[in-house]
Amino acid sequence: MSKQKETLNFQAEAKQLLQLMVHSLYSNKEIAIRELVSNASDAADKLRFQALDNSKLYEDDSELKIRIDYNKKNRTITISDNGIGMNREDIINNIGTIARSGTKEFLSKLSGDQAKDANLIGQFGVGFYSSFIIAEEVTLETRKAGEKDAFRWTSKGDGEFTIESINKKVRGTDIILTLKKDEDEFLDDWRLKEIIKKYSDHITLPIIMKKADFKDGETIKTDDDETVNDASAIWVRNKKDIKPKDYTEFYKSLSYDTEPPLTYFHNRVEGSQEYISLLYIPSKAPFDLYDRERNQGVKLYVKRIFIMEATEKLMPQYLRFIKGVIDSSDLPLNVSREILQDSKTVEAIRSGTVKKILSSLEDMAKKKPDDYKKFWNEFGRVLKEGPAEDFTNREKIAGLLRFSTTNDETNAQSVSFDDYIGRMKPEQEVIYYITADSFMAAKNSPHLEIFKKKNIEVLLLGDRVDEWLISNLTEYKNKKFQSIAKGDLDLGNLEDASEKGKNKKIEEKAKTLIEKIKISLGEKVKDVKVTHRLTDSPACLVVGEHDISGNLERILKAAGQNTPENKPTLEINTEHKLIKKLKTFEGTSDFDEYASVIFDQAMLSEGGQLDDPVNFVKKINRFLVK
After folding, report:
1. CB count in 10 Å sphere of residue 391
2. Which string of DSSP letters, residue by residue, matches 460-507?
3. Per-residue model confidence (pLDDT) at position 124
4. Backbone torsions φ then ψ of 417, nearest 5 degrees
């Protein structure tokens, strides 16, 4: 056999893609190890499949495994497998050209039941080149099962590679990474095992390393082998064979949580799409739950190979508290394992998974109300983001939401929309609510006075997310939502004819006073009216039915967003002593100041800010000493 070394050039497209891989797609350096381990697993799977028709390919060694070793002195990492291996043609086609993939090409030749049995994933050429993230030189030594010739491939990723014939007794592939100067972290026993546990724990092949002892502050490798990974994916096992303790231990290893989960759901879907989901709801919310940029807690696997943390394409933001795994049998991937393709398969997995989570929460709410209360206290505000993000499941999500109401006036959010509708008066046609910047502000709002008098329940929405929720949820089960702080108050059939007649008389009687207040306040207000919603307070501010609320306006401004000019309407309670006092100042210089104080008080009771608080205090002091 000629052992002459050949030097070949990468294709132009390969050079470009290599640069893209190293500098863009694979920014997380540790996944270079993940990719190579995954490829080794692919090679073993390919051998196992081909050996079904030709058992001689095993060459009297059917115990498939992956071995990882490192050499600090030579600054190398070696990843070996006894899988299918490659011949020269395979190397040129699968390694020399990034755009092609040995595994992808192999899968394309399968059909029917064969495709099902071939437990293959990944695109070998692409994953292999992630080696250059951490290596200044990569050497590949390989011999294909059933063949005698072996080859060494070497490259520094600089546009060319060499191939030469070598002697290699054992079939399969060894990949030797000569590390860059700043990648010493990968020459550490604990670090390598951590990466394997993180990304490849559930590969069905044993991943073997030398045992290490820690002596005199130094890690020393022994001659004994140890299997680093678990080599068994809990989610692919039959649910009957898994104990609750097993589910809990897997959750803790997956999430690094020290507490057991609140609940979990294990689901296998078969049909046009095949995938398994094992999902958990933690018992406690993480500190960064409200950071929408944080990594999702669900890991995406394809055939038990960890691909990535799930994105919004698989798990919506309003379910970001979910932990677990989704393992697909046929999920399509594009050139990088980091980026999911837009596809019907992805949409189907997302849709099925979301429906399973929501239906499980419905069951919890009905059958385990105490558990649902715990869930809501931890994750309720995140779930409130759902109706704005998920139109398809809007009604189902809305049924899971809980709120405080005037029914018990506690800050415990325990009332569902169904609870509210079940308690509605026969004449009531809408669901009444009020938003504010806190529960106490909502609970003590003057807008509630007429509703308390008539014993009409009102939802108290004091979470910041409630404004977003209610602006995207206009009705529930054909019952529209109505803010009690927007537009003219119309209680419909809840107000009898005699009350309406009485109110009209009050309005007629107060016309002169209303006009004078309107002139006094000028550009501060859109209008001044007699109120029919106050019984104890002198005045309140109301915005138009289609205007943003004062609370939402403040939230947007605090976030640095521009808001449309939104002048409120001042409603006055002519039966209140302060309004009667104001009337006595008609024709005097004190009228304007008194009217201004009443407006400012109404602004403060709405949670608003005064343009000139010092002047307001001076006015109050003058009236106090008068």
Report:
1. 9
2. EE-STHHHHHHHH--EETTEEEEETTBSS---GGGS-HHHHHHHHHHH
3. 31
4. -60, -35
CA proximity to 296, closest of 281, 314, 311, 313 = 311
Beta-bridged to residue 162, according to DSSP, are 7, 154
Per DSSP, the three-state class of 180 is coil
Q: Which residue has the tokens 């859109």?
A: 526
**Residue the block writes with tokens 């398994």:** 276
Residue type, 91: I
**For residue 24, what are the CA distances in angstroms to 27, 179, 294?**
6, 19, 20
Cα–Cα dist 178/188, whole Å: 14
Single-letter amino acid code for the residue at 410:
T
* SS3 call for 545: coil
- Each residue's pLDDT tens digit, 178-218: 999 889 999 999 999 998 887 787 677 899 999 998 887 78
> Measured between alpha carbons, how far is 83 from 96 in angstroms, rounded to an integer?
20
> What's the pTM value of the predicted model, to 2 decimals?
0.67
607/589 Cα distance (integer angstroms): 29
Residue 435 pLDDT exceeds 50: yes
Strands 569-572 and 527-530: parallel
CA distance 295 to 322: 11
Q: Which residue bears the tokens 């051998």? A: 47
Q: Residue 176 is inside which H or E element, if any?
A: strand 172-179
DSSP string, 91-134: IIIIIS-TT--HHHHHHHT--THHHHH----S-HHHHHGGGGGT
User: What is the DSSP secondary structure assignment for residue 263, as one 8-state letter?
Assistant: E
The tokens of 438 are what? 């806190």
| Low-confidence winner among 71-80, 99-108, 293-302 (lowest mean pLDDT) | 99-108
